[in-house]
Amino acid sequence: MQIVWFRRDLRLEDNEIVSRASKDKQEVLPCFVVDPWFYQQPEISAARVRFLFESLKNLDANLRKCGSKLYLFEGESVEVLKQLTRSLLELGKQPTLLFNRDIQVEYGINRDRQILDFYQQHNLKTHIGLNHFLQEKECYETLWHDYHSYHKKPIYPTPEQINTPEYSLDLAQLTIDGLIQKYSLSAQAKSKYFIGGEDNALKILKSFLGGRYQGYHWKMSRPWLAQQGATSHLSPHLDFGTISSRTVYQQTKDLEQKLSYSKYKFSLKTFLDRLRWHD
Fold it and tell me: Helix, strand or coil for residue 28?
């Protein structure tokens, strides 16, 4: 069976580990760990926490459409995943852990190393996917080629069905509503310019490519116009992985190739240049 550990990849479309885990009707346990470390960081704001919770709620809803659900745990990530794995072993399972590679601070690097060591010690398999473009080894000479090669690869489709049985786990779980209620003070935010979730990310991309992109090349540097919708408004979605940069890249390139008006094409070219900065 497969444990899909969501991190900053809160989507089903174009998600390597979701696609890989759900093949051949394998058992899949999708999970997210609410790690207190996240909430202790000085840059964490109420808006950021609210966006995360909205994204988790939408991810759970989309998983349920596929016959699955999101298992929510709370605690230090290494200990939670160790407990989860032990619990599944006691049920006679041989779990494989799948998660996507990401750019990490020291905490994340050490966390991932400890978890991989734990799985190796127990002779259990792991698979590390790609959430967005990353070079295995930094090589400036091939960077441009590698970036475009990655973004031109076929997108992983959203699974129609994900096989997630009910597991009797010796591990405390949270519900989405319970999570929102528990962190209610953190979840309150004055502004709602950005609403989380994969469904919203896809709607925003559609809106941007539907016409908002026009004039992007000069409007992007004017904060008031940007706030009114002149920019893509995809930045938080790319950051939390509710949409993949590859999805954005391919849909933007498709539109660019259909256009004949040079200024509109230049707006999209400018946007694609900015998108590359994200990676």
Answer: strand
